[in-house]
Amino acid sequence: MMPADPLEAVTAPDPYPYYRALAARQPFGFDERLGLWVAAGPAEVAAVLAHPDCRVRPLSQPVPTALAGTAAGALFGRLIRMNDGAAHAPLKAILMRSMASIDAATAKARCAGLAGVLDLVPDMAPLNGATINRWLFTLPVVTVADLLGLPVRAGADAVAVAARVAAYAAAQSPLATADDVEAGSDAARWLGQWLKMPAGRPCPAEDLGLLPALRQAAHANDIAPEVVAANVIGVMVQACEATAGLAGNMLVRLGRSSPTTGGLDELAVRVAIDDPPVQNTRRFLAADARVCGVPVRAGDAVLVLLAAASCAAPVEAGARPWTFGAGRHACPGDALARALAAATVDALLARGAQPAFLAQAFRYRPSHNARVPHFFEALVRPHSPRRPTT
Questions:
Q1: Which ranges of the sequence are coiled-coil (predicted)?
Q2: Across the strands, what pairs with 31?
């Protein structure tokens, strides 16, 4: 059965025929059911993401109503990926340089080392559906924290950090409950205090992580420390749900078909294109404008179907997958996300995860934009773990 609308498509068993049909039939148009403009064709998605009047937040609502006046909302309001304008350009440039400087091989080596740390945490040990899900939401986040130079070496502490990041990410969802928002605010406060802690682990001078250099560059540009802290948390949030979705969708793909000849690195690229973790994003009109040749009014919202653009036309080899966005708010850590997803899958396979079982026993987490599997059966046999090369 075809999804009823683009939001229902996010967690449908196979939304891609629907996306292709929509992109062909109505690459840009108004969806009466949702009350939104919808961009589905590749050219239309690119045009919306590049349009100067299409902003990441409505001018009248810089913070979602549910978060307004909370610690979660205060953090949200400082995120450069949730703001437009010249005021945020210096920090954005600093963060983009920092993220681009992370070598994929180094990231995968750190990820493998931290997987060994997680083996020591009792509630991460039995490899069943619950622990698979925890690994997906924990290992990429703590690896990013470690690369930044944050204190995540202790196993239980690493799990606690990832849990707070996941709680803050959940609070931002349109589906968040009042309890989710309260938990997200608690997490925002906890993470803010945690960022003030010293690393607490000996390491050579050349291995202090990116955070000291990031803070120094921000100070030179008169960027407030709390803004830097918010965006460091933002980087970890981006490594949370989206990377968990990419790694989880890779496990599902492995369970349904043979791996590609290029191993897990190539599989991460293919899944980012064919079954992307971030299916859509939104833009809001700051002024009356023509978008894709159509007059659109100030305050109107556009649902940008990244997944539809991805499947509507072949993606050229080496091109950036649509799931990581484009234009002013393109994700700066796309290569890192693919490397961490591949390393996370590799770590789970090495510990005996069986993709064939995974692919038979999961659902997608409720979401309006992220396609993230949630596994719920016993997923491992006690023998024959395999460890493909990433």
A1: none
A2: 36
